[in-house]
Amino acid sequence: MSIFDKRLKGVRAPHCKNTMDSATQKMPVPDKVYICMSQHMGPPCDVLVKPGDEVKVGQVIGDSGAFLSSPIHSSVSGKVTGIDQIIMPNGTRSKTVVIETDKEQTYHESVKKPEVTDRESFLKAVRGAGLVGLGGAGFPSHIKFNPKNLDEVDTLIINGAECEPYITSDYRTIMERGEDVMTGIQAVMKYLNIPTCIIGIEDNKPKGIARMQELAKGVPGVRVQSLVARYPQGAEKVLIFETTGRIVPEGKLPADVGCIVNNITTIAQLARFLKDGLPLIAKCVTVDGGAIAKPQNVQALIGTPIKEVVDFCGGYSKEPRKLLMGGPMMGTALYDETYPILKNNNAILAFDESQVEGYAETACIRCGRCVRSCPMNLMPLRIEDAFIKDDYQGLQDYKVNLCIECGCCAYSCPAKRHLVQTHRLAKARLRRWTQEQTAKEGGKG
Ligand code: SF4
Ligand code: SF4
């Protein structure tokens, strides 16, 4: 096998799945929740309530007419006490509805089993559920389920890979809500007329594979595929290749190669909504890392401050040096533990001193490890060179736009180059440069 073989791309990061056998513990209703209006890819929702309003569980409190949007529901019953602005971890601002809870958890009258009879009513229900990709991407599910070439889609791929170290919340979905996963899969296959479903799970979760195989027995068109445990098997394009052998060409979408990919917890949540109309109001989150006293999986209401989630897990046993929302490869570092739980938040990791390496960059030694590890077959060192030189043509030629920000290059770099951050900035600058070039061309005409 050549060192450039596809199977050797990505990295063998330690799994650290310490909380695999931790059954999800339900957190109590907090005194206050902070429900952010930016919980999906796309523009933030408009706030539909005002201070003083009484709200109930499942009530829509934010929505937007934008194409890439998803409604936001109240996770609690209580009174709106304010509309705050919070600074998101990426530096943008978002409106946040502050609700003082009455601890009654009274359901809103809109929470009832949706009437689903065909594709149109199914897609309406998916939007009504407020569903977004719960694996971290936050892509609105009703858009994903409605590609323009749906008739050409023949395969639904369920992402149960959970390849990021530490995170086990999807695994707990498999073990605790496997029946919901199957119900959700069958609904998608039926209403979108997709004949085949492949559930991809990494082979470091043998009990999860066995459980889904048992549940899939006798269900036409559904099979479970064991994947080599190698990061980033759960990345959309990697998963499509590993399960079907199909390659999504540059600038194309999964539906263009006949696939729709969905996270396994999203599918379980869809089944829940179809059963009783309860939208997405709570999330199973893995709480782990050397600074957490009692690492475990918890079910927290959306909008619960992270500090309260950490306190529920016994607080900090050591001084935290780094707090992350998400996994260590693609997660976002948080500057503030009052930040609330979001829909697509699947982990809170608090690392202690011993787990946070000193990060002094040294010069690139042209070892090529970043190239060998890149699952998108890019040349991260060349992209960095082009970025440093403001060489926009180079950034285009080296296809920085294909970078999925998985972090494999930075993880394998002995010089500790900040490659992912560089690529993120490079993508943004290239976008701006391209717009400027287009405007100039337009001006000439
Ligand atoms: S260049 Fe992008 S896609 Fe390739 S390894 Fe680095 S972060 Fe991942
Ligand atoms: S892995 Fe780091 S040191 Fe090696 S070639 Fe890539 S950027 Fe340079």
Notes on the structure:
- With 445 residues, the protein is an alpha/beta fold.
- It has 3 domains: 160 residues, Ubiquitin-like (UB roll), CATH 3.10.20.600; 144 residues, 3-Layer(aba) Sandwich (Rossmann fold), CATH 3.40.50.11540; 84 residues, no CATH class.
- The chain is built from 12 helices and 17 strands.
- The strands form 4 sheets. The chain has a 6-stranded mixed beta sheet, with helices on both faces. The protein has a 4-stranded antiparallel beta sheet with strand order 2-8-7-4, with no helix packed on it. A 4-stranded parallel beta sheet has the order 11-10-9-12, with helices on both faces.
- Helix 3 runs parallel beside helix 4.
- The termini are far apart.
- The N terminus is likely disordered.
- The structure holds iron/sulfur cluster (2 copies).
- One iron/sulfur cluster binds next to helix 11 and helix 12.
Q: Which key features would you list for this structure?
A:
Rossmann fold; 12 helices; 6-stranded mixed sheet; disordered N terminus; single chain; alpha/beta; 445 residues; binds iron/sulfur cluster; 29% helix; 4-stranded antiparallel sheet; globular; Ubiquitin-like (UB roll)
Topology summary:
Blueprint: E1 25-26, E2 32-36, E3 46-47, E4 54-55, E5 60-63, E6 72-73, E7 78-87, E8 93-101, H1 119-128, H2 141-144, E9 155-159, H3 169-192, E10 196-202, H4 206-216, E11 222-227, H5 236-244, E12 259-263, H6 264-276, E13 282-288, E14 296-301, H7 306-312, E15 322-325, E16 332-333, E17 347-351, H8 369-373, H9 380-388, H10 392-397, H11 408-412, H12 419-444
Parallel strand pairs: 1-14, 9-10, 9-12, 10-11, 13-17
Antiparallel strand pairs: 2-8, 3-5, 4-7, 5-6, 7-8, 13-14, 15-16, 15-17
Helix pairs in contact: 3-4, 3-6, 9-12
